[in-house]
């Protein structure tokens, strides 16, 4: 049998497997005697702090004892990462991370190899069925006052200048990610770029990270069906904190997207994970796909340049280039011109509009947002996408942290009352108010909402799904609240969950009563045969 060693150029260095590790990254019950062997005959230098090894770093000799680091002093976990950083109340759990490379006459002669090791016999008991993500990077990339993306920086009195509020490629930092499923099944293991992700959640002590696969880091995509069997590669991913739910229920957005995953909208898939940064415990996150040009193109097998993504509505005060995020918004602008000039009570005008937007997707989007009572989607967290110049616009569904509050609240009223407000500006409600003029749309929308509320979102389904999430997350919450002091304790977390439980028990009947109130034209029969 012939064995071939593949070589390639990365950062100007001819690459092959130049260091052999006695153990792969993973979770081990007992301590390890880690051994490294140079395959090119050169010396091995290594670091244990996340920084890139240099010729001046420690020489690897015989072996490294990898055992429990639980009682080692916290380093990164003591750093204040924003105005919402709470006081910590315990030491963090830690793993061993090593970065190693070969050197000859002071010059690096191999790639930098990165491994993460956890030694804990009770790991599964501590975190239940959660998978693990390790992020390893030079700590200055995250926590340096001048250039660290995870801290406020040199402007304590001006959040607009805070490091964690900066965006763009200039504020992307190199890192290594490892996704460990079970104890030793490695699903992702590659160098990447990281940025801070999100809006208001950037002020939280625990932040969301956007992850970039690039050829310059070694791999152009994240490969593998680790989120869903139907998609095998991604260009960008998000490690999401729970945003406004960070100090409350933790999983509200994930709960909602799991219930809506089958709807005719683009719903991000997710994987609950425990994150470690440079070996230190960083708490519960959710690994998510990110609806950008590249990921949509990979999902649907089209060219990136054919994908268009826009912000919802027209007249957005922060709008740049008419809301274009990626691609072109020509047909989106045409849509609002037609809406403004047409009378959708006339069937031909409604049919003209339905050639530009995917009515089924629009209806499912509003049904989900309204049923779950989200208050942060009209003027925010609302995007549409299409393919090509004439592709119909479809909805992207994300960030449901503003829902699940009052089960009896009428969600349709603020869309139709015509009173502009911060959360319901007229430019944002214009599409729904105009479509409502059509009895075709109104009938289809009310029927779909009724059927979803009676079946997919009925009280039994909501309660069962909610209770399953509680069961799944419970083992990991104690450590998370110990790290971040929010929601405080497991008992306080359970108190926060009561609002979700009450919503689940009462929303279905309440929404169907609201539907009947808005069916002023008697479009719906007394009994609907939904399925």
Describe the structure.
The protein is of the alpha+beta class. Helix content is 27%, strand content 23%. It has 12 helices and 25 strands. Helix 7 crosses helix 10, helix 10 packs across helix 12 (490-518) and helix 11 (459-484) runs antiparallel to helix 12 (490-518). The longest helix is centred in the C-terminal third of the chain and has 29 residues, at 490-518.
How far apart, in Å, are the first and last alpha carbons?
A: 58 Å
Using the CA coordinates, give the radius of gyration.
Answer: 26 Å
The global form is elongated
Main pleated-sheet profile: 7 strands, mixed, barrel
Strand content: 15-25%
What strand order characterises the main sheet? Answer: 13-14-15-16-19-21-20
Overall pLDDT confidence? 91
What ranges have pLDDT less than 50 throughout 5 or more consecutive residues? 1-15, 317-321
Helix content: 25-40%
Count of DSSP-assigned helices: 12
Kindly name the structural category.
alpha+beta
Total strands: the figure is: 25
Write the layout of secondary structure elements.
Blueprint: E1 8-10, E2 13-15, E3 19-21, E4 26-28, E5 32-34, E6 36-38, E7 43-47, E8 58-59, E9 64-66, E10 96-104, E11 107-108, E12 113-119, H1 123-127, E13 131-136, H2 139-143, E14 173-181, E15 185-197, E16 208-212, E17 222-223, E18 233-234, E19 236-240, H3 252-260, E20 270-277, E21 280-289, H4 293-300, E22 307-311, E23 324-326, H5 330-341, H6 347-353, H7 359-371, E24 383-387, E25 394-396, H8 413-416, H9 426-435, H10 439-454, H11 459-484, H12 490-518
Helix pairs in contact: 7-10, 10-12, 11-12
């Amino acid at each position: 049998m012939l064995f071939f060693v593949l070589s390639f150029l990365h950062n100007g260095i001819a690459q092959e497997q130049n260091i052999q590790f006695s153990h792969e990254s993973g979770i081990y019950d007992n301590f390890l005697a880690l051994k490294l062997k140079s395959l090119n005959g050169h010396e091995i230098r290594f670091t244990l702090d996340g920084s890139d090894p240099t010729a001046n770093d420690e020489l690897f000799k015989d072996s490294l004892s990898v055992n429990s680091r639980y009682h080692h002093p916290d380093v990164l976990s003591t750093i204040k990462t924003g105005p919402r950083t709470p006081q910590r109340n315990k030491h963090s759990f830690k793993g061993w991370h090593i970065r190693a490379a070969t050197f000859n006459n002071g010059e690096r002669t191999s790639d930098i190899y990165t491994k993460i090791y956890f030694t804990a016999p009770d790991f599964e008991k501590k975190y239940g069925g959660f998978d693990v993500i390790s992020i390893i990077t030079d700590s200055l990339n995250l926590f340096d006052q001048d250039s660290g993306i995870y801290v406020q920086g040199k402007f304590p009195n001006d959040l607009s200048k805070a490091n964690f509020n900066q965006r763009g490629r200039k504020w992307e930092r190199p890192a290594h990610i490892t996704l460990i499923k079970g104890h030793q099944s490695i699903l992702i293991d590659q160098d990447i770029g990281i940025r801070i992700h999100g809006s208001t959640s950037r002020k939280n002590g625990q932040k969301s990270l956007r992850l970039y696969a690039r050829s310059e880091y070694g791999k152009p995509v994240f490969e593998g069906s680790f989120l869903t069997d139907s998609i095998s590669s991604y260009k960008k991913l998000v490690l999401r904190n729970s945003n406004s739910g960070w100090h409350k229920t933790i999983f509200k957005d994930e709960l909602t997207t799991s219930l809506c995953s089958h709807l005719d909208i683009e719903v991000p898939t997710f994987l609950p994970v425990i994150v470690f940064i440079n070996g230190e415990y960083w708490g519960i996150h959710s690994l998510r796909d990110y609806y950008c040009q590249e990921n949509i193109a990979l999902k649907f097998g089209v060219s990136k340049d054919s994908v268009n993504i826009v912000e919802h509505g027209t007249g957005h005060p922060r709008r740049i280039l008419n809301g274009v995020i990626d691609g072109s918004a020509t047909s989106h602008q045409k849509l609002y011109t037609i809406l403004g000039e047409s009378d959708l009570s006339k069937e031909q005008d409604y049919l003209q509009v339905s050639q530009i937007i995917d009515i089924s997707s629009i209806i499912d989007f509003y049904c989900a947002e309204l049923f779950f009572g989200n208050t942060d989607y009209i003027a925010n967290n609302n995007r549409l996408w299409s393919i090509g110049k004439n592709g119909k616009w479809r909805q992207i569904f994300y960030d449901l942290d503003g829902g699940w509050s009052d089960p009896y609240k009428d969600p349709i009223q603020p869309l139709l009352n015509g009173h502009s407000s911060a959360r319901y500006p007229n430019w944002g409600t214009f599409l729904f108010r105009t479509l409502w003029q059509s009895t075709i749309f109104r009938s289809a929308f009310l029927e779909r909402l009724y059927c979803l509320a009676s079946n997919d979102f009925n009280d039994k389904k909501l309660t069962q799904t909610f209770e399953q999430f509680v069961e799944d997350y419970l083992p990991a919450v104690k450590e998370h609240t110990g790290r971040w002091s929010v929601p405080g304790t497991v008992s306080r977390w359970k108190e926060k969950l009561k609002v979700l439980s009450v919503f689940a028990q009462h929303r279905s009947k309440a929404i169907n009563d609201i539907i009947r109130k808005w069916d002023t034209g008697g479009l719906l029969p007394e009994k609907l045969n939904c399925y």
